[in-house]
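Q: I'm writing up a methods section and want to include an example of the input and output format. Could you take the sequence below and give the corresponding predicted structure tokens, formatted cleanly so I can copy it straight into the document?
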Amino acid sequence: MAPVIALVLIVFVGGLLWTVAVSFTASKSVPDWEFVGMANWMKLFGNARWIISYKNMLVFGIVYIGGCLFLGYILAILIDERVRFESLFRTVFLFPHALSFIVTGSVWQWYLNPQLGLQKFVQDLGWTGFEFSIIASRSFALYAVILAAIWHGTGIVMVLLLAGLRGVDEDIWKATRVDGIPRWRTYLSVVLPMLGPSVATSVVLLGAGVVKNYDLVIAMTGGGPGTATEVPAKFVMENLFERSNIGLAASGATMMLITVVCIAAPYLYWQSWQRRRGKGVDA
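A: Here is the clean output for your methods example:
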């Protein structure tokens, strides 16, 4: 295991520490180890573009994660009812997750493009007054990106929650039928609380995707119209490669890391607590 451990320490942990260290330096086009303290961080939080991108990320995360969990649970319930062609439905619903965000973004950009997609198709059928140009609207462009992201991420949530549903003890279903509890109420009030680990895993996976979201935005809107779909990852990449401000980019990347830690830490603590609790019960 020594080579693997060394690789992880050098490439991943080393790269992480290097990025954090650069965020406190005067690095511009190339790394410059002149220490400037919190100057880059002050510029970061004083930058209107960063504030907008971070707010967009929060809105994106809340709606995206909530939408994936809701639709994923609905699909998992439907498949859990032992429908015919179950394997086919699982494959179809999971297929979008097999696509890259670049491909997903390109497809949805074509579909939502007023000159190429749904709007033009309906207008060509004769409904010339039909309009569906949310991707070109400053107010709704972000939700167009969220729509594509939900289409991409719902399948993996469905698989995780379906695995949890298949692990529910059959005696619970028998007890609810004896008590006359409607099946929908059983899924909502009895089964859902038992899927805590699956839901937590889904939130962590989706949350990490929210923070690093870049290629989907680039493929669909390029951050526009204006700054309507700006996200932190795009801000970091622009400052790193286009604006030659490595120090500011490293500050943004470190802030993204802190966000991921804030998402993952409660889940990891909960897992640790569960293990300790399990050991205590066994003892």
